[in-house]
From TrEMBL:
Boundaries of every PASTA domain copy: 668-733
Organism: Cellulomonas aerilata
Top-level division of the source organism's lineage: Bacteria
Protein name: Carboxypeptidase
Any one GO molecular-function label of the UniProt entry: serine-type D-Ala-D-Ala carboxypeptidase activity
Keyword vocabulary terms for this entry: Carboxypeptidase, Cell shape, Cell wall biogenesis/degradation, Glycosyltransferase, Hydrolase, Membrane, Multifunctional enzyme, Peptidoglycan synthesis, Protease, Transferase, Transmembrane, Transmembrane helix
The keyword Cell membrane belongs to this UniProt entry's keyword annotation: no
Coiled-coil intervals: none
Pfam families the record matches: PASTA (PF03793), Transgly (PF00912), Transpeptidase (PF00905)
Low complexity composition-biased segments: 743-753
Biased segments, Pro residues type: 652-669
Glycosyltransferase among keywords: yes
Family to which this protein belongs: In the N-terminal section; belongs to the glycosyltransferase 51 family. In the C-terminal section; belongs to the transpeptidase family.
């Protein structure tokens, strides 16, 4: 059919095709090949960028927005705009990787041919890829390829990209995509990893070093192979001179750059790991981010954690655990936590949840639970004040005391100490269990539970007579939050750790953190409760360690049954801090055991011992920070539900006259001692002391240059007086106003009238 064999020819020539057939076949194949390439090119579409190449590191900062706390990433990458980079960065990469980049159409036929010949000769497999081809395979395909079919597809895609994207866009995306060693992707992350600088600040020498190691960054890292790294650096600089990017003089001035040590730290290692975990949880739970989005979205997350306070918490906890604080180290299984909350908005400004998140991921401050002990008494006190019971009401404080809910012989006070008839201020100061149990029974345990939850306790609170003594378990963060409600005069704010999260690429806001704020108690009720809690610090169970800080502080110690937990929770108007101890069994079994006594002269760990000492050591450093240095006063005691403690005398019947010449003498009125030490106290405090004694107060004000405004100058009368007597309190109104300077009369030619002499 094709005319073979050819009958006119002889021998082997009969079977050879004619030149016309050969030429025609070659032309046909050529046209078919060109057509196939044209069809393939036409069918080639530029896909969406690979998600991996778009991923950016999320960076978490302390509250100052500048100090890095840590990062979240599946890879270390931060995308930068090529317009922000020095020109020599791009020039170094082009000189090293693709000298014809600005002229070629996306592929280099000579480079591909050279690579093909090398491969056919059995050399190391080469791709002959241009920057555009490398960009195509990484940015769009998400992987590299060296097989011929893959290279052909890559070449077509590169040509397509070269027609649709300008060179600067291609180079910029390439620089943000390429792997550059030390676990980094992109020029910005590499600049930080090798030199500790931003890509925008790279020198010519630094840019040449990074560009030189692109083909094998892990092997040619200066820390791994300094000689090869310097050889590659020299090569890049020489090529930059040849291509006209730098001058010979510039080249001669270059010195091989010094790199920084390789960072091998783990993101979650150390105490800050607990903070980073909390940040991730908040972004996930409140902002609805997935873990993948957190790791790849390229967020800038500013937290509420203040670095000086966090450092103070970490160093103070370390001093406790290594024995510096107490003179003896505690049991290694002791769990101590420190949490500080800003009363103004609920921001967590410092939190110590443990020494190392990697070795122990359980956060003692947010996940740990321990019985609250007497730190619950203020909740009962607030409930009583809301129910109309004043601070001046008295209760018997003997111990033991038979009460409903306790087996005989009854409830005991700490040390089985008995008290007489005392008011709620003294009961708070001395943490008198028997008084507070009576108070809880009077208002109802459900009231105590309700107040605790309104204040900020999130764990279930038992409804029984013993809940006033902290039988329920609580998180340390909840205690700091609840007492922050007192510091905020009755406003509760939900705690939070993320101030704001923004997208790095365009600075748009992804999440605005803030706690919901609600007034849950009246300021007057809180003022009275706070006053009682200040007495814990000035003369009660917290006075030994916290009192010497010598500023207005309110708080409460707490110790649970069998000393299984111990607390001090205290606040100023600016900050609320909870310190909590508990001790799980050393063998890892669930539960809590009695805290092993430790330290100088301490036979049992109570809230008034090392928890108070740790609180004081930490807060002393906090008060050295300018923001927390002012010694703000609390609002004055409001004396809500004020009642006269004067008992009404029982009327005595007039005696019937008798024939005898004598009559029964009338009963003598009851006398009461006017409380001493009223001078110098606040007006509200002095008034309360008089009412508490069964007297009334008559207040007058006068200027004083020596007594601060609002403080008592004098009280009259003193000594013994009849019950119900009005005692005059002279209260300072502050320094007297200076006499007015007379205004000279306008000059009219007449003499000004003489100023009349005083008197």
């Amino acid at each position: 059919m094709l005319g073979y064999p050819q009958w006119r020819r002889t021998g082997i020539r009969r079977w050879l095709p004619s030149w016309r057939l050969v030429l025609g076949s070659l032309l046909t194949l050529g046209f078919l090949g060109i057509g196939a390439v044209a069809v393939a090119y036409a069918m080639t579409t530029i896909p969406e960028p690979d998600e991996f190449t778009q991923a950016q590191t999320t960076t978490v900062y302390y509250a100052d927005g500048a100090t890095v706390m840590g990062t979240f990433a599946t890879q270390t990458r931060e995308i930068v705009d090529i317009a922000t980079l020095p020109e020599h960065v791009g020039h170094a990469v082009v000189a090293s990787e693709d000298r014809t980049f600005y002229e070629n159409a996306g592929i280099s036929p000579t480079g591909m041919t050279r690579a093909l010949i090398n491969n056919l000769r059995g050399g190391a497999t080469q791709g002959g890829s241009t920057i555009t081809q490398q960009y195509a395979e990484r940015y769009y395909a998400g992987q590299t390829t060296t097989d011929y079919v893959g290279k052909a597809k890559e070449a077509l895609l590169a040509v397509k990209i070269g027609q649709s994207e300008d060179k600067e866009e291609v180079l910029g995306n390439y620089l943000n995509t390429i792997y550059l060693g030390r676990g980094t992707y992109g020029i910005q992350a590499a600049s930080q990893a090798y030199f500790g600088v931003n890509a925008a600040d790279l020198t010519v020498s630094q840019a040449a070093m990074i560009a030189g190691i692109i083909p094998s960054p892990s092997n040619w890292d200066p820390l791994v192979d300094p000689e090869r790294a310097e050889q590659r650096w020299n090569r890049v600089l020489d090529l930059m001179v040849e291509d006209g990017w730098i001058t010979e003089a510039d080249r001669a001035a270059q010195v091989f750059p010094e790199t920084i040590p390789l960072s091998t730290g783990q993101t979650y290692a150390g105490p800050q790991g607990y903070l980073l975990d909390m940040v991730r949880r908040e972004l996930r739970d409140r902002a609805s981010f997935t873990d993948e989005q957190i790791d790849t979205a390229g967020l800038s997350v500013v937290t509420t954690i203040e670095k000086p306070l966090q450092d103070a918490a970490v160093t103070s906890a370390a001093a406790l655990m290594d024995g510096t604080l107490a003179g003896e180290a505690p049991a290694p299984n002791l769990r101590a936590s420190i949490v500080s909350v800003d009363p103004a908005d609920g921001a967590i400004v410092a939190l110590y949840g443990g020494p190392d998140f990697i070795s122990q991921s359980f956060n003692s401050a947010t996940q740990g639970e321990a019985q609250g002990g007497s730190t619950f008494k203020p909740f009962t006190l607030v409930g009583a004040l809301e129910n109309g019971i004043p601070l001046t009401k008295r209760y018997p404080g003997f111990s033991p005391m038979p009460l409903p809910g306790w087996e005989r012989p009854g409830l005991r006070n700490f040390g089985n100490q008995s008290f007489g008839s005392i008011d709620l201020v003294q009961a708070t100061e001395d943490s008198v269990n028997t008084v507070y149990a009576q108070l809880n029974i009077e208002i109802g345990p459900e009231k105590t539970a309700q107040v605790a939850q309104r204040a900020g306790i999130t764990t279930p609170v038992e409804v029984n007579a013993a809940n006033v003594l902290g039988s329920s378990t609580v998180h340390p963060l909840d205690m700091a939050s609840a007492y922050a409600t007192f510091a905020a005069q009755g406003f509760h704010s939900t705690p939070f750790i993320v101030r704001q999260a923004t997208y790095i690429i365009d600075d748009s806001v992804a999440y605005q953190g803030a706690g919901a704020r609600e007034q849950v108690f009246s300021p007057e009720v809180v003022a009275d409760a706070t006053y009682a809690m200040t007495r814990v610090v000035t003369s009660g169970s917290g006075s030994r360690w916290v009192g010497p800080l010598d500023r207005p502080i309110a708080g409460k110690t707490g110790t649970s049954n069998e000393n299984r937990s111990a607390w001090f929770v205290g606040f100023t108007p600016r900050i609320s801090t909870a310190v909590g101890f508990y001790q799980p069994p050393a063998d890892g079994t669930p539960g809590q055991e009695t805290i092993t006594p430790f330290g100088r002269g301490v036979r049992e760990v109570t809230g008034g011992t090392w928890p108070s000492a740790l609180w004081a050591q930490y807060m002393e450093q906090v008060f050295a920070v300018e923001k927390y240095a002012p010694a703000d006063e609390f609002p004055e005691r409001a004396n809500v539900n004020r009642r006269s403690a004067t008992s009404t005398p029982t009327p005595t019947a007039t005696p019937t006259p008798t024939p005898t010449p004598t009559e029964t003498a009338p009963p003598q009125p009851q006398t009461i001692a006017v409380p001493g030490g009223l001078a110098g106290r606040t007006r509200a405090d002095a008034e309360a002391a008089l009412v508490n004694a069964g007297l009334t107060a008559n207040v007058t004000e006068q200027p004083s240059d020596t007594v601060p405004a609002g403080r008592v100058i004098s009280a009259d009368p003193a000594g013994e007086v009849p019950a119900g007597t009005a005692v005059t309190l002279v209260v300072s109104s502050g320094p007297a106003a200076p006499p007015a300077t007379p205004t000279p009369a306008a000059t009219t030619g007449a003499a000004a009238p003489a100023v009349p002499p005083p008197g």
